[in-house]
Amino acid sequence: MSLTFVEGDTGPAINGTIVLTGTTTPVDLTGATVKFQMRKDNDRRYQVDATASIVSPSGGTVTYSWGANDLANPGPYLAQWEITFSGGIKQTTDPPVDIIVRRQ
């Protein structure tokens, strides 16, 4: 699956439901924090590494509203959600989602 956004846009927000690997069961995000991370597909540095909003902790749903420069550079990207649970354990979604930022 890939998502396409337009260079320079700040909407729509990106939404997701985080599920247990190999299932449709949502991850319980109660007491957790979630970051949205996005990087060029050929780079290890994140262009976006920012706090996301948890919409429904028990439903595993999250959202990230794009910042002013998040979609400034066209090209292919990989995106993921990084969860930090209350005990400090980190879990990152896999596989990453392909995002295309197309030229204006």
What does this structure look like?
The protein is mainly β and 104 residues long. It has one domain (2-102): Immunoglobulin-like. Helices cover 0% and strands 46% of the residues. It is built from no helices and nine strands. It has strands at residues 2-6, 14-17, 33-40, 48-51, 53-56, 61-64, 75-84, 90-92, 97-102. Strands 1, 3, 4, 7, 8 and 9 form a six-stranded mixed β-sheet that branches. It has a three-stranded antiparallel β-sheet with strand order 2-6-5, with no helix packed on it. Strand 5 (53-56) and strand 6 form a beta hairpin. The model has no long low-confidence stretch (mean pLDDT 95).
What is the CA–CA distance across the termini? 22 Å
Mean of all residue-level pLDDT scores: 95
- Please tell me the total number of domains: 1
CATH architecture: Sandwich
CATH topology: Immunoglobulin-like
The named CATH superfamily: Immunoglobulins
Q: What is the overall shape?
A: globular
Instruction: Determine the oligomeric state from the structure.
Output: single chain
Helix content: under 10%
